[in-house]
Specification:
single chain; 307 residues; alpha/beta; Rossmann fold
């Protein structure tokens, strides 16, 4: 949230130059405040776990946030009880006439498939199109980021030689974007994926900018220059033990996975993983809510359609 200061405070200009979010008293008095409306398209198999991860991060804000969950009607979930979906999730037909301040599109375990071969591809493209006129800002995560970049900008995904799994160090490339306010020059983030994205194709899109990347994990965060879309290839929302659970799952089914990099002390899979990405995760989601969404979205949600 911004700091409210007197209009003539001498340090106001200095704070702005340091990228501190300050608001003159006259503007603060004229602000209209309402709850933010956030929609989450949850494509992850363990929906309850992902719900908890995202809600925990969205709650780190003084803003009141109303959250709804969206599921794909054209996909039958094998890992989530139908009763849970029926009670807590809506279909696209049920929400398509509504407007939202923000939309989160999660990852999905379909990254090795061609986008068009995913059973809900036609339905998710409807969501992509709808979001242009009914959502102010969309945060795409992992496969959701790859799918969004492919659909909106023709950016291809690239199959990696082996699965990228672990905690990797990242370099901040742009400090002046709303979503990277307050970030250190370097930070950590989890990755768990078999594919990457084509850097040259991203760099060829004028309205996109690479905000953070890693020498080992590649591009991590891409932003649209108008705050309307962000694409994160990693999983800052992951809990401490999420990668451990994935490793044990793959081991159990005989995939013979590599130990996640930089995750277990001494690569001892029986040890408790160290968590060093929570601050970056908290900052990403709070910045998205507070700056990218709250300070820019129209008070009257239907006005999004005319932006």
């Amino acid at each position: 949230m911004p700091i409210r200061v007197p209009d003539n405070l001498p340090s106001y200009k200095e704070l702005l130059e340091e990228d501190i979010f300050v608001m003159k008293a006259t503007r603060a008095m004229n602000q209209e405040i309402r709850p933010l409306e956030i929609l989450i398209l949850n494509l992850m198999p363990n929906k309850s776990e992902t719900e908890g991860q995202l809600l925990r991060l969205l709650s780190n804000s003084p803003l009141q946030v109303n959250v709804e969950f969206l599921a794909m009607k054209t996909h039958t979930s094998k890992n989530c009880p139908s009763e849970h979906l029926a009670e807590f999730y809506k279909s696209f037909d049920e929400i398509k006439n509504y407007f939202y301040d923000g939309l989160i599109i999660t990852g999905a375990p379909v990254e090795k498939m061609a986008f068009e071969d995913v059973d809900y591809w036609d339905e998710i493209t409807q969501v992509f199109d709808w979001s242009k006129t009914h959502v102010f800002s969309t945060l795409h995560i992992c496969w959701g980021a790859q799918a969004g970049l492919y659909y909106h900008y023709d950016v291809e995904k690239i199959l990696l030689d082996k699965k990228l799994s672990g905690i990797f160090v990242h370099d901040l490339k742009h400090r002046d974007n709303d979503i990277t306010r307050g970030y250190d020059d370097v930070f950590y983030a989890p990755h768990s994926r078999n594919t990457g994205i084509n850097r040259a194709q991203v760099e060829a899109v004028p309205e996109l900018e690479i905000l953070a990347d890693s020498p080992d994990a590649g591009i991590f965060l891409i932003g649209h220059k108008d705050n309307r879309a962000y694409f994160a290839t990693g999983h800052l929302e992951y809990d401490r033990d999420t990668l451990k659970k994935e490793y044990k799952r793959d081991e159990k089914v005989g995939i013979n996975p590599e130990v996640p990099a930089n995750y277990f002390a001494g690569d001892d899979v029986s040890s408790r993983p160290k968590m060093n990405w929570h601050m970056a995760a908290t900052l990403l989601f709070s910045n998205w809510l507070n700056y990218s969404v709250y300070q820019n979205t129209p008070y009257k949600l239907s006005d999004i359609e005319n932006l």
